[in-house]
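Re: your question about TOR3A

S., sorry for the slow reply, the queue was backed up all week. Below is exactly what I fed in.
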Amino acid sequence: MLGGTERLLWLLLLSLLLPPPSAWGQGGQARPREGTEEAGSARAWLAFQGLRERLRAAGALSRHYWARFSCRVWPQDCGEDEEASARSPAWSLALLGQQYLDILSTWSCSFWDCCDRGDCRIINNFTGLEADLRVRLHGQHLARELVLTAVRGYLEMPRPDKALALSFHGWSGTGKNFVARMLAENLYQDGLRSNCVKMFISTLDFPHLKNVDLYEEKLTDQIRKMQEHCRQTLFILDEAEKLHPGLLEALRPHLERQAPSNQRAESQRTIFLFLR
Ligand SMILES: *[C@@H]1O[C@H](CO)[C@@H](O)[C@H](O)[C@H]1NC(C)=O
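Result:
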């Protein structure tokens, strides 16, 4: 158990001694160099990938883990009982460790694209979106142009005063979901898995009529939370024709023009996709 902790500690320290990530290129996307260095670089790259995974795990360090960690490093300040130390003010003795963690996270963020608000992975690749719509979407010329123009126009607006709502309907089968996915993938590095993208399916997320009040609260709450976290959010509402009017009502404030009194340092962009 503690052996594992020690190993992790070692990895953390080792990682601080490694050459800067620029040696591998930017954003963790670089390939091994060519020529004689290739094999060595490839090995280094694999090692680097493994390290990255461990750092990711370390990024999720819990308070409890920190207490244990500090017990290993500063045993003199540590109680007998690990559980107790996790709860006790011994937490403060992890401050020095916290500094290391900060250094570590600053360093790791230089190539993970992470940031405080978790929305650094917004890519808004309109070239990619245009290409996807052109190549992968068949027989929807009008939709293709409209989607691209609307989304691009909205996202490039310096200070939009309301959300953009797009409603896709009348298309058979997967066409609508397909476009929704293309949008997510070209606007966010992580596509539909992004923390700034949320999909609701009416029959799944809001199945019972009697709970509409609850759903309304849940929906409003989730939108608010995501907007706090991301400056650009995408909400996909599938089976929108089955959405209760009460829930549409909950969305109304976003779809209406916001008074400019609501000044924010950074403008908020929200896209609602209704698939019906
Ligand atoms: C945008 O998407 C295209 C096509 O998928 C891709 O080739 C290009 O590298 C992307 N650009 C960026 C900046 O991600």
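The beta strands are 164-168, 197-201, 232-238, 269-275. The mean pLDDT is 70.

Happy to talk it through on Thursday.
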